[in-house]
Write a structure and sequence with these properties.
The structure holds 4 protein chains of 4 kinds.
Chain B (H helix, E strand, L loop, with lengths): L5 H6 L4 H48 L1
Chain C lengths: L1 H16 L1 H22 L3 H23 L2 H9 L1 H6 L5 H29 L5 H28 L6 H28 L5 H30 L1
Helix pairs in contact in C: 1-6, 2-3, 2-6, 3-6, 3-7, 3-8, 6-7, 6-9, 7-8, 7-9, 8-9
Chain D lengths: L1 H10 L2 H33 L13 H28 L2 H33 L7 H22 L3 H32 L15 H33 L4 H6 L2
Helix pairs in contact in D: 2-7, 3-4, 3-5, 3-6, 3-7, 4-5, 4-6, 4-7, 5-6
Classes of the chains: A alpha/beta, B mainly alpha, C mainly alpha, D mainly alpha.
Amino acid sequence: MLNVSGLACSRGERRLFVDVGFSLAAGEWLHVQGDNGSGKTSMMRLLVGLSPADAGAIFWRGERAPSVEFRRDLIYLGHHAAVKEDLTPLENLRLAAALDGVALDERGALAALIRLGLRGREELPVRVLSAGQKRRVLLARLLTRPADLWVLDEAFNALDVAAVKLLGDLIAEHLAAGGMAILTSHQPLPVPGGKALVL
Amino acid sequence: MQWNSVGEFFAMGGYALYVWGSFGACAILLIAEPFLAKRRLKQIRQSLIRERLADELESQQRTQ
Amino acid sequence: MNAFFATVRRDLLLAMRRKSEVLTAVFFFVIVTSLFPLGIGPEPVLLKKIAPGILWVAALLATLLGLPRLFAADHVDGTLEQMALSPSPLGLLVAGKILAHWLLCGLPLVLLAPVLGLQFDLDASALGILTLALLLGTPLLSLIGAIGAALTLGVRGGGVLLALLVLPLYIPALIFGAGAVEAHIAGLDVGGHLSLLAAMLVLAAFFAPWATTAALRIALE
Amino acid sequence: MRQSLIQWFKFASPQSFYPLAGRMIPWFWAAAAVFGIAGLWISFFVAPTDAQQGEGYRIIFVHVPASWMSMFIYVVMAFWAGRGLALNTRVSAMMAQSLAPTGALMAALSLWTGALWGKPMWGAWWVWDARLTSELILFFLYLGFMALQAAIDDPRRADKAGAILALVGVVNIPIIYFSVKWWNTLHQGSTINLNKAPSMAQTMLWGMLLMALAFWMYSIAVALMRVRAIILERERHTEWVKHAVE
């Protein structure tokens, strides 16, 4: 489904990696590993199409990415909070869905927030929430937007034990339903199986 | 030839300030610019040579 | 198109939560136009003559004031990244943001201009032309400004740089916008000025979101 | 055709363009010198005194070429920048970057000589004439381009952002020019029309043409010199640069 070959990337004058390739089929996930500064985040940004690769090709369902179909099937969560501090979690979720052209009613948004343990925080502005709770608002998007490929960069950071387990469960469910995931992390991840890619 | 003397040439029929001001400014800037470009090239070359020297010294010290 | 309106709604909602940012541009416009008579003197003939230019220059600077923030907040908190990866075309979302910027920073100026024009002893028909010219011209300012805002996104000294990039490009809008009112006061036909402003607006509406999108993708790399 | 295309892309790599530029520079300097000497000879010794403006009109021999070049260089710069953006060739973007200071210099010279011409002819250093005003705006566009490129640390991002700005500028220049011209005619009463240039004698035309050629060759030579420095600065960590300097 996802085929990546010959990927190369440099930051400024420094070569980060060359000739990286892998493929993912339905239900598989990839653990991108490496030291600080080895290019994990650059790799993720390159995979989703935010920055251009020096060389190499990415194919999604046999078509060259990034295409509109690829973006429709993709959720990327990076280092940024990517939520608006002045809006409530509910508004954040619904507006993000509207921007993506995805239908999301109040019931669906509320259900996602409650699953992520944000009961009672739905109507508060995001700026009064803690870092971990902000992260959970972002993670709620995994539930509100159907997408086959999850690209999560350091998604387990700033999460407490319960949330780490919850995210692990979410990913496992997603894989069981035939989804794919690419994750970066320093620590071992609470998700069984998975291919490894060391940069 | 419309100039009878060198002085007349430099006087430019009373327009000396304007004519020589224009031509002078052009001359100064058009001569200065290549020198600046040349200096930029020289600086980067020197820096490259310095770096190569540093590379050599480093490898020498490593072998010792 | 839903994504377009969702972007407009989102930016308006955000602005409503932080009213001070919207009001800054409006206050700036009011204060600058009111300062000119104090600096120049209360002579009605002179004020009437320079009114179109002053109102236009003030509108131009007031628009410029809000431009650095057009994409900066979304860039810092990562929502711009999400927009770039959204299945909706980025150009559409960018167009939505530009429209929201105009509704917040341009439209209030258009609505205030007739009131401020009274300070300069402009008659009713001149005020009408001024409003119409600003109605055509301020969206143009937002559109061109968005290109500059995207180019200077996350760049050192972005604010001053933005002014340097954008102000020369604003000159045609200033000339035809202020020119329309001047021509009207002088008893000339203003159709030419206004239709040229409209033509530039159409041209900019077509190309500016596209150029802005390209600049934003570069800024996100 | 195919062969020449391959040749072209070969020269489009910094490694092969660097020595090529080095070989071309002396030829352009020689051409600039020849045209310049011939042009200066005509400007001062062949062209007759003007009936209306006396000797003051001789400023035209530097003013007009500088103005032409300032406009021409912007278009060429936008072409290289756009080419760099579309084809992702590094040398194109470097050429655009290296042309900008020369273009700005030409615009500055045009403004300076224009002021020195205006003072004796119309009694003012500066008039809000359509051409002078457009030239001033062009100068600002150059400054904006250079400031934007200087403000962005990542050279590749600087190239692309600069390219978009240059292309936006090139679309806008005609609009700005015509709007300024319109504005000028509307305010005709308060300004003087520069269009009433002295009727062009054949020798004057030749002088201007030769000087313009000299400025053109000069611009190419100095831009090539600068692009060589830019190539070394940007490619300093590559292997070939380490061997290129002795």
